[in-house]
Specification:
The chain is α+β, with helices and mostly antiparallel strands. The chain has helices spanning 29-36, 73-90, and strands spanning 40-46, 49-56, 61-66, 94-95.
């Protein structure tokens, strides 16, 4: 009996796969919900700050964080997630970038 020639296996896909629905909401749940609404997040250089993460909605800046030395991007995003949660639930706003505004004395 003659052998059949086989086609070579296609190379593995290099596309990024979507997160399965079962785990989609577990990582950064507050940010996930925040940006699904009217929220926005920005990550990058802001003036002299080489890496910052900012979360704002149409009215307020909820959190502005500076990336700490030796902090990974994932750790920065996790801190942003917690800071947004504090702002939404307890109205505690975090600002590590701007100097505090001094009121009248």
């Amino acid at each position: 009996m003659a052998s059949r020639s086989r086609k070579p296996a296609p190379p593995p896909s290099r596309r990024v796969r979507a997160v399965p629905a079962a785990t989609a909401g577990r990582f950064l749940p507050t940010l996930e919900e925040f940006i699904a609404g009217d929220g926005q997040i920005s990550i990058g250089t802001i003036g002299p700050v080489s890496c910052a993460a900012i979360a704002s909605d149409e009215h307020n800046m909820l959190a502005a964080l500076k990336r700490r030395p030796d902090e990974t991007l994932q750790q920065l995003l996790e801190r942003l997630d917690r800071a947004v949660q504090l702002a939404l639930e307890d109205e505690i706003f975090t600002d590590e970038i701007n100097a505090p505004i001094k009121g009248p004395r």
